[in-house]
Design goal:
The chain is α/β, with parallel strands linked by helices and 315 residues long. It is built from 11 helices and 17 strands.
């Protein structure tokens, strides 16, 4: 799994940061990617990546402020123009369905794929055999959701050295053993799956929060997550503005992560008032926390594998 940040700014685009759009790349897991929010010019940001809009499977909207939704009409239309014909589901708060439908109808944007728009409430909003997605209301100036994506436990690893020692032929029998079934060999011997597989592995948990003040819902949703993506619109010196506008400081974000016993924090949704030179000061304000903290910039990409989060160097 990888996290790619197409836009990390707050309110309006700046020269350094586009408005919010975060991508959960699930290309290995399901051959698709999911997107969280879609600020203005998100489709233009995609042009600078290897993402293909037709691979977009699900789109989660946290709330209806323009810096989180103004990129939707263009992206939805372009996905169709570029040959995307697989269904797309959009999840979001009440009002998102009417806004999208009126915008597409007024602009006479024709979409050739099935578009499903679900206006959600708190709770589990999606589940299949691989993933569970839970939504919770946060505390912003309008209704706003956070989302937690939980990958279900992965199948045990097949220990090839053990199957080779038992002369299990390569092919369908190995697949059956990996899936938990015992098999009978040609000579009549029974090989048990438990004898040639390791322990099941936990999947990952990623919490992606929309705009919010420091609140209990953020902590509950982030509980023991491997990665928390939390807005840090302001720093400690501008904390009064954070409270006034329903936002968080980078210290608020770190405290949520600490209280939730989460493992890694990535801060996004940075106010345009902060120049690149200011980011070092923001990071210094949270240097004493015991878990890794990153401040994402546009096109920053992070890889999660084997329980480790690594920032992918940009070419």
């Amino acid at each position: 799994m990888q996290l790619l940040f197409l836009g990390t700014g707050a309110g309006m685009p700046s020269k350094q940061r586009n408005t919010t759009a975060t991508v959960l790349k699930l290309l290995d897991e399901r051959g698709t990617f999911w997107m969280f929010d879609c600020g203005e010019a998100t489709q233009h940001q995609i042009l600078h990546t290897t993402l293909k809009p037709r691979k977009l499977e699900k789109l989660f909207i946290t709330h209806l402020h323009g810096d989180h939704i103004y990129g939707l009409p263009g992206l939805l239309g372009s996905r169709s123009f570029l040959g995307g014909d697989e269904p797309l589901t959009i999840y979001g708060p009440a009002g998102i369905k009417a806004w999208i439908e009126v915008t597409l109808a007024t602009s006479k944007t024709h979409i050739k794929y099935a578009l499903n728009i679900e206006e959600i409430e708190e709770g589990i909003i999606f589940e299949d055999d691989q993933f569970i997605v839970e939504a919770k209301f946060l505390e912003h100036v309008i209704p706003c959701f956070g989302y937690k994506v939980t990958q279900k436990a992965l199948p045990p690893e097949l220990l090839i050295e053990k199957t080779d020692a038992l002369d299990v032929p390569r092919g369908p029998l190995l697949r059956q053993l990996k899936e938990g079934y015992d098999v009978e060999l040609a000579d009549g011997r029974i090989v048990k799956s438990s004898e040639v597989t390791g322990e099941p592995k936990d999947g990952f948990q990623v919490t992606i929060l929309g705009d919010t003040k420091f609140c209990e819902s953020s902590i509950l949703l982030s509980k023991r997550s491997d990665i928390v993506v939390h807005e840090g619109t302001f720093d400690q010196e501008t904390a009064e503005l954070a409270g006034l506008y329903g936002h968080s400081t980078i210290i608020d974000a770190a405290n949520v992560c600490k209280e939730a016993e989460a493992k890694h924090l990535i801060v996004n949704h940075i106010s345009a008032r902060f120049m690149p030179s200011d980011i070092k000061n923001m990071i210094a304000q949270v240097a004493h926390y015991e878990f890794p903290i990153y401040v994402a910039e546009d096109f920053a990409e992070y890889d999660w594998s084997n329980g480790l989060l690594k920032k992918i160097p940009r070419e």
